[in-house]
Each structure stands twice: as C-alpha cells, then as structure tokens.
Design brief:
Order of helices and strands: EEEEH
Shape: globular
Distance between the termini: 15 Å
Strand order of the largest sheet: 1-2-3-4
Number of domains: 1
Helix content: 10-25%
C-alpha cells in the first residue's frame, strides 16, 4: 500500500454506498492495520501486520 501509515483514522471503503452499516472500518497505523465492524465498533478490533494486510489485498485483486 502506498498510504502514509502514521495514523489515518477509521474509514470505510470508497465502495461502501448509501450509508450502509454492513461493512467494516479500517484504520491504517504505522506498523499495523486494524479492522472493526462498522455497526458494532465496540465489539472489538482485529489487528493485522502490514505484510499480512498487503497480502490480503493482493489476493482480493487477483
């Protein structure tokens, strides 16, 4: 990923439309990527290393 990972704050995919809560939110930080459920953010966060997240995104594109 080419984003600056200092701390981008939580965001939803640009493909998330209509204000739907049926998606995840992502937060890019220096060495990790955090993911949470947008409709229940208090239920917890998954944390991935940068390499694992990049591999995941590459697999989606393939």
């Amino acid at each position: 990923m080419s984003r600056d990972r200092t701390d981008a704050g939580w965001f939803k995919s640009s493909r998330s439309t209509g204000g739907s809560d049926n998606c995840v939110e992502v937060r890019l930080q220096r060495d990790v990527v955090r993911v949470r459920d947008s409709k229940a953010p208090e239920d917890g966060v998954l944390t991935f290393g940068s390499a694992a997240w990049s591999s995941f995104l590459d697999s989606l594109k393939a």
